[in-house]
Design a protein that fits this description.
single chain, mainly alpha, about 0% strand, disordered C terminus, lysoplasmalogenase, transmembrane helix, TMEM86B-like, alkenylglycerophosphocholine hydrolase activity
Length: about 230
Amino acid sequence: VKSEGPKLVPFFKATCVYFVLWLPTSSPSWFSALIKCLPIFCLWVFLLAHGINFLVSHRSASRILAGLIFSAVGDAFLIWQEQGYFIHGLLMFAITHILYSSAFGMKPLDLKAGLLMGIVSSSCYAFLYSYLSGPFTYLVAVYIALIGFMGWRAIAGMQLCNDLWTWTKLSACIGAMLFMVSDLTIALNKFCFPVPYSRFKIMATYYAAQMLIALSAVETRDEEDFRKRS
């Protein structure tokens, strides 16, 4: 963890810049889009700092990087969501969750975790359903299914009972849960009722989630270093 910390300093600084400037969403601009996406750009740099060869040879890391790229595009679209680009942002983040799920993998399967996430996802959609109309009735259902699946794969990797977990697997799990909290807050605020301090809650959990998921990409490198030391 100590070795990765210095590489995350730009991300923390960019996040502070976002919250300090706190640009109004009522007047979207390319500058506000840049400030919002800057922390995610820093996470690109964080992963690229581990080397192109590392990303090319490890599919999970390259897929998380690809997910971060689609996330940044989604963030930019959401700056102009009131101008009709909310669905575009939704699509970009749906692709992000597919990439993250692929990075986390399908082993171990852990059907109990899958059942739990299925219940949670279904409950969230059942609550939102009466507030949805038009294409959002179906789009939100698909999106919740995708982020729920991503959460399942992150939880399944933990293997707490078998004592096989690592700090990076824990990072992926917490990151996925925070991503779900962030997106649920967006849904509640947009479709149901105003959520107090919604923007702060959404962005704080979102940036934390992306950082933790990016951290989970360095696991394969840690395992290689451990084998070399052994």
